[in-house]
Design brief:
Blueprint (H helix, E strand, L loop, with lengths): L10 H17 L14 H10 L13 E4 L7 H7 L4 E5 L2 H13 L5 E4 L9 E7 L4 H10 L1 E11 L3 H8 L3 E9 L7 E10 L3
Parallel strand pairs: 1-2, 1-4, 2-3, 4-5
Antiparallel strand pairs: 5-7, 6-7
Length: 200
């Protein structure tokens, strides 16, 4: 099984993940950030699940990255803690963005946090991320708002990923790659490029 040492995570970064975990446990009592049962497996279910996309980001830590519907900060905040320099976390839930701000403050992590609906955003990014936020078709619509021609979408999806791709193809033209998750055999990472809307 993949561990943090396998992913070349430094001791300093592990300490930041420990702070993150303690804050998540505390805040989760009042704000529904993650399912309570997943806290027992925080590193694998949330941290390693987030970090597994680093090769897809080509380890370009200066790239502009946006995480749509970030919730408790997966995968975007985990990547910021790991060392990615130009990440924007977006969530329309004010309490969730306050939690993200507290983690960033306590870990001295530079990250941009937007309490905003994703469809209202206009800046363009190199990579668009999302984990368990909404359907692939909806994600592609949101992705178009914040994409330039070379932008890549990287989306954590579950066992219905193939069905979601099929449904999205009714509305969108796009190239995609399906990559197995390293933590869940039912899960997939859907990598999307060259997105355009179908008309007619």
């Amino acid at each position: 099984m993949t561990s943090l040492s396998d992913l070349d995570v430094s001791r300093e970064t592990i300490q930041k993940f420990e702070i993150y975990f303690e804050l998540l446990k505390e805040w989760n009592k009042a704000v529904p950030l993650v399912q309570e049962k997943t806290l027992d497996d925080f590193i694998r279910r949330h941290v390693i699940d987030s970090l597994q996309i680093i090769p897809l980001l080509r380890n370009q830590k200066e790239s502009s990255i946006i995480d749509l519907g970030t919730g408790a900060g997966f995968p975007g905040l985990v990547l910021a803690l790991y060392g990615f320099k130009n990440i924007t976390l977006v969530d329309s839930n004010r309490k969730k963005t306050l939690f993200l701000s507290e983690v960033a403050r306590k870990t001295s992590t530079k990250v941009t946090i937007e309490n905003e609906r994703a469809e209202n955003l206009t800046l363009k990014y190199d990579f668009v991320l999302s984990r368990a936020c909404t359907s692939l078709s909806n994600l592609l619509s949101l992705m178009k708002n914040v994409s330039r021609e070379t932008t890549t979408g990287i989306f954590h999806k579950g066992e219905k990923s193939v069905q979601e791709i099929k449904e999205a193809k009714d509305l969108w033209d796009f190239d995609y790659e399906l990559i197995p998750s390293i933590i869940d055999q039912r899960g997939k990472i859907v990598v999307v490029r060259n997105v355009s809307k179908k008309y007619g």
